[in-house]
Write a structure and sequence with these properties.
four-stranded mixed β-sheet; Hypothetical Protein Aq_1857, Chain: A; alpha/beta
């Protein structure tokens, strides 16, 4: 199981935890969503779910993946980019995504889990 975060994504998530005032880590999951099937669900968490898989290769913070979507998320690189007009966004470069919808909110997966 491999998930990577860019330095910008790590800093953004750390800032989210600080602003929130609590949080023991970050979880990435997916849900059925949008016009293409599945959307990403990034979340700061206060506790570990029994189904969570910890990504041990990320040492800057505790990162977990919902086991149901481990195959679908394997190899994903998470980045954080600043766009125009003050918009910022986590981006998911997922080698298991076969296509995105036009709005970029959902993806088709080779193996949705």
């Amino acid at each position: 199981m491999s998930i990577s975060l860019t330095p910008a994504a790590i800093q953004h998530i750390k800032d989210m935890i600080t602003r929130r005032g609590r949080g023991m880590g970050f979880r990435l999951s997916m849900k059925k969503y949008g016009c293409n099937g599945f959307g990403y669900v990034p979340d700061v968490i206060d506790e570990i779910n029994p189904s969570d898989i910890e990504i041990k290769t990320i040492t800057e913070m505790r990162v977990f993946v919902d086991a149901k979507f481990a195959d679908a998320l394997n190899g994903t690189i998470i980045d954080y980019v600043k766009k125009g007009l003050g918009q910022n966004q986590l981006l998911f470069n997922n080698p298991n995504a076969e296509g995105e919808c036009g709005c970029g909110e959902s993806v088709n997966l080779k193996d949705p889990g």
